[in-house]
Amino acid sequence: MFVLGACKQGFLEACKPLVGVDGCHVKGPYTCQLLSVVGADSNNCIFPIAYSIVEQENKDNWAWFLNLLMTDLGIDSGRGWTFISDKQKRLIQVLGELLPEAEHQFCVRHIFNNFNKKHKGEALRTDVWAAAKATTVAAFTTVIDRIKALNVDAYIWLANKRPHEWSKSHFGDHCKCDVLLNNWCDSFNGTNMLLEARGKLILSCLEHIKKYLMKM
After folding, report:
1. d(Cα 100, Cα 94) in Å, to the nearest integer?
2. Are 170 and 163 spatial neighbours (Cβ–Cβ below 8 Å)?
3. Phi–psi pair at 138, nearest 5 degrees
4. What DSSP designation does 60 have?
5. Which has the closest alpha carbon to 8: 84, 87, 85, 69?
6. Mind listing the pLDDT tens digit for each residue in 120-143?
7. What count of Cα atoms within 13 Å lies in the side-chain half-sphere of residue 144?
8. Whether the predicted pLDDT of 161 surpasses 80
9. Can you say whether the dihedral through the CA atoms of 51, 57, 60, 62 is positive or negative?
């Protein structure tokens, strides 16, 4: 795993304990995955922290990656930290085991896209996002009850999702951030630089990313 000293120091000294975690495909001749951890600075601009290339996204590789991240950033049980992801099953398992006291939030766009596969309609779409953006438990409950009146199956689907993972109304207050999307990782993975790097051989890809971060 690669963590540049300047990125580590800058994040620990100036950024909130809130990070996005994600993986994306490397498009070169080898079938690999690029894992990344991205935070945000005080201007809400992306702040890359760590990255690595692994053979595939599986439990062992996520555990290896996050163990090194915890060591570098001095994270113990995760108390006071928030991790945002796209709800990758193996990543969820590892976060639960390694960081049992961390808050784990899911990208609402990812949740809605899964919801929309079975429960379509503009009214439901509006209410799901209203529930995610609700800032009080009372407001959240009102919207959820409205969804129940519209479509019981849609209500049951949402009831199986824990509110503290996707609604502002239930977020903890330790990091004081109301981010609903894993846009930081998406933005980092989608930059022209990274798209170019992902098409190179493994060592060249890693070196390309390092040079880019050194210029940020």
Report:
1. 9
2. yes
3. -65, -45
4. H
5. 69
6. 999 999 999 999 999 999 999 999
7. 20
8. yes
9. positive
Torsion of CA 32, 72, 208, 16, to 10 degrees: 100
Radius of gyration of the chain (CA): 18
Strands 46-54 and 32-40: antiparallel
Residue with tokens 């993986």: 23
What's the sign of the alpha-carbon dihedral 132, 133, 137, 139?
negative
As a whole number of angstroms, the distance between CA 42 and CA 23 comes to 24
Which DSSP symbol is given to 2? B
Tens digits of residue pLDDT in 113-126: 999 999 999 999 99
| Spatial contact of 107 and 85, defined as CB atoms under 8 Å apart | yes
Q: Describe the crossing of helices 122-133 and 108-118 by its angle, rounded to 10 degrees.
A: 150
- What is the pTM (predicted TM-score) of this model? 0.87
In the chain, what is the greatest distance between 2 CA atoms, to the nearest angstrom? 55
Burial 58-87 (b: 16+ CB within 10 A, else e): eeebbbbbbeebbebbebeebeebbbbbbb
Tokens linked to 118: 């079975």
Listed in sequence order, the residues at least 6 apart from 147 whose beta carbon sits closer than 8 Å to its beta carbon are: 124, 127, 128, 131, 154, 155, 158
Q: What is the distance between the alpha carbons of residues 154 and 171, in angstroms, rounded to a whole number? A: 22
Q: Cβ atoms within 10 A of the Cβ of 136, count?
A: 11
Any idea what the Cα angle at residue 14 is, between residues 10 and 16, rounded to 5°?
115
